[in-house]
Design brief:
By secondary structure, the protein is α/β, with parallel strands linked by helices. The protein contains 15 helices and twelve strands. Strand 2 and strand 3 form a beta hairpin. The structure holds ligand FNR.
Length: about 375
Amino acid sequence: MAGPYSGSPMTAAVEFETLHEIVQRARQNLGQNDWDYIVGGSETETTLRRNRLALDSIAFRPRVLRDVGRVEAGVEHFGRRMRLPVCLAPIGALEMFHTGAGASVARAAQAFGVGHMMSSVCKPGLEAVAAAAPDGLRLFQLYALGDEAFVDDHLARAAASGYAAFCLTVDTAYYSRRERDLAKRHFTSGRGRVAGRDFLARLDWRTVERVRAKSTLPLILKGIATAEDARIALDHGVDWIYVSNHGGRQLDHGRGTMEILPEIVDAVGVRAKIVIDGGFCRGSDVVKALAAGADLVGLGRMQCFALAAAGEAGILRMLELLGDEIRRCLGLLGVTAFAELDRSYLHAAVPANAPHVLSAFPLLTIDDYRY
Ligand code: FNR
């Protein structure tokens, strides 16, 4: 468990001048098991690396001599203005990294003005997190670890607590083999051994149909990785397609999500919105996703690092630095808002660095941080 950071947002702001310093501090604060749990993926970690590979295989085609004196990085979703097209992805057991857990993340998201998706397996639970950030853009993610009554109960509680959308994670039919944990015989914290796992293996489209019929909340399916499934989701009235491979933590030898995105964008058209995650660490990563047709980007590991580095203040500083990178990137591309971006700003490229979970931060000394 990381030592809780007691400094003010201001202190953290002075302390971290780059995103990699946040990762560095997280590494210092975390024990080896928790660090491995965050940075690790499944089996050979090929999917994990391909997330970065896919992002780094895209170069920009910038335009010049346009007035970019004012750049606006905000977007509007769920009927709300968001300061950045960014959502803090659902992370279970954040309490392992910081005592504030989901409440700290929700508070930081509210203070900054981005979305937070609360995991159903994160403390202090959905009601307490709603109370901690009553005015924030809060979305709720469920692992369907139970029968119909279990799902309905969470649906009703999420609606009653003011969550703006309901998300079902659908890429966890089986818990993957996380070899960093297995090799150390590290089986604590219920990782993968939670009650009700069998229900996840038996989940099918009938659950989506039932949830759609029962609730008017926008419905998100997290873990879509093909145009075929995106089309079926649309036929079930899903509002948001969440393109994700669970950060390379589930099926190994999958595609990087930025490689998946174009076929989803083509299949979805204007029938739904698209959120994507997997390897997004830098402002330029977020800009690439939006230019390629995504509406929102989820941050998984960056959220864990920021929370472990400095709690709520760490998340705030991470978002500030990310926002700064995003605005400079947009300006240097010759656009003043995301609405002006499209695929013409992107070009296939050969990656300049070998991809790995931390390769977005070349100034980190990898040997020191045992990625
Ligand atoms: C996750 N992820 C996840 N997803 C989900 O739907 N519910 C959950 O409870 C969790 N828990 C979780 C814990 C940890 C430690 C990590 C790193 C990830 C997956 C997460 O929402 C997201 O899809 C990925 O983390 C995105 O990839 P990056 O940003 O971590 O590369």
